[in-house]
Structure formats: structure tokens, C-alpha cells
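Handout, page 2. Input:
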Amino acid sequence: MTDSTKTTSQTDKFLVYGNPIAQSKSPQIHQMFARQTKQDLIYDKQLATIEDFKSSLDDFFADPSAKGCNVTAPFKEQAAQWVDELTSGAQLAEAVNTIIRQDNGKFLGDTTDGPGIVQDLLRLKAVKKGARILLLGAGGAARGALKSLLSLEPELLLVANRTQAKAEHLASLIPQDNVKACGFDDLIEIALPFDLVINSTSSSLSGELPAIPDTLLAQTGFVYDMSYSDKPTILLQHASKLGVQHYSDGLGMLVGQAAESFYLWRGVRPDVEPVIDALRVEL
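Output:
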């Protein structure tokens, strides 16, 4: 066979950017997805800085076998500026956690955090159509989840934040009658219970409880904390003490958002259950 008739196949390459990045479980998750779905790919992790992140993207995608990447803190906003196009979800979030090299050579930026949490909530049977949902926090995590949570068709999605103006701004991005906002101080006046409370704040990471009334939390049907660790977060422990029977941390969201990225790149949906179970054992 002559050189001109030989065919070569390159393994598709993916990675995740972050700072810090050593703790990232993304390579492990995507390698499990790849084995499960019999996909030939390499997935690595890359430390970057604010100064060199965009040039690092240029270098990575200069390789034609580089098909996509994930982006975590603190680069999601920079990634949104680097790509050629943004999905509607990424436009709303003003952030990108998934970059896809398209067939036309353009780079599409998407955010899979919202679909990731919705996928996990449905897996857990944590919410039904017509639910009353309380979203704690109005930062990047809440912004990334807001639009996707509305796909659950809630009767009410109330965004609550320590600074009320920030909650009102986030709610105003989706002008729907079922999207409301308030400050934490206003929660004491709410009489009807919530079917689902989602904590998007970083309070659990610092070992603190979000400033919401125990009376409200005790009546909640399901409490979901986007944070996760080797034991229930402080919010979930507190909810359990108050008598809440159904709750979960965000490990399933982590795997769910990765599964959505994997689908965007490969066109196949992996089974998240065995991956969540494997990660839970290792925590």
C-alpha cells in the first residue's frame, strides 16, 4: 500500500480547564462514559490562568483532533467571549462550561449546568410539574440553572438572595409570571410550603447555613444542595434534623452536566447511575 492510499485515524481529544484543577473528577467521569458507550477518546485536565486561558484554548484547538472542552471556574465568562456562537442558555448565563467544535469550523459555547441539575432532579423524582420551587442564591450557579428549571413547568420559581436587588435582577432575565424574587428576610412571611428548595449558594462549602427560616425548611418536600462532599452537607444535615425526609447533594448534578456535555460531543447519552455510584464510593 502506498503512502497516498493509507488512512489514519486520530483519537478525538477533550479536556477540562480550571484553576484549581487537580481535584477535578471530569477526566474520570468522561473516561467511564467512554468505556460504557465504547467511544474512542482522550479526556485530560489543564491548569490555566486568567492571563493565558484564551491563548491556551487557541493552542488546544489548533490540533484538529481536539473536538471540545469543558470549562470550570474561573474561566466560564472568558469562554463565553472566546467562542463564535452561544446557545440561548449560555447567553442567559453569560457563561460557558462546554465548547464544541462544529463541522463548519466554528466554536459553539453552551452551558450544561442547568440540564445537569434538571436531569438529576428527575432521576431523584424530586419534582413534578406544577411544583413550587425556591432557588437560594442569585450568583453564577443560579443563573446557569434558571432557564432549565423552568422546563419543569413549576407553578412558582422564587429566587431568593441575601441581596434582594440581585435576586430581582436574575428573575427579570426571564419575564414570566411564575418567576418571582425576594430577599432572604422576606421568606419568613411566606405561608405556603415549597415542594423543592435548591441551594445554589456557596454556604455549604464554608460550613454555613443559608439564612432561611427553619419553619420554611421543615415544610419542604425535597431539599437539594448543589454542593457535595463525603458526608451530607450542613444544609442537608440540618434539613434532616428538622424532619425533611427527602434530600440530596449535587454529585448527581456534576455527573449530569458531564453527561450532557458528552452527548453534545458524541451524540450518545451515557447512563449516569453507575458513574454516580462509583464516585460516591470514592468520596
